[in-house]
Amino acid sequence: MLELRPTCEHCNTALPPASLQARICSFECTFCATCADTVLGNVCPNCGGGFAPRPIRPAHNWRNGNHLGNHPASAAVRHRPADPVSHAALAAALQAVPPGLR
Description:
Elements: E1 22-24, E2 30-32, H1 33-39, E3 52-53, H2 84-94
Antiparallel strand pairs: 1-2, 1-3
């Protein structure tokens, strides 16, 4: 189950569970859309993968108890800003490789 991390790992902007601005990689590294698109260039600084919009977990129990009340979002903040120099090298190395092939 997705952890639904509460903030952008780079800029520490709040990303509540219903945020449409949250982006994740396949390891659930979580960034805001601005950082994912403009600062990181769709390259996760932790794994090199690409980003996708984070799904919204239902706030209400529409079916089988699958909602935020039973499966709350994480409260653990992971603020680890990307190092600009090392990320630039990683992004340059992956520039020609589409996220689906990384």
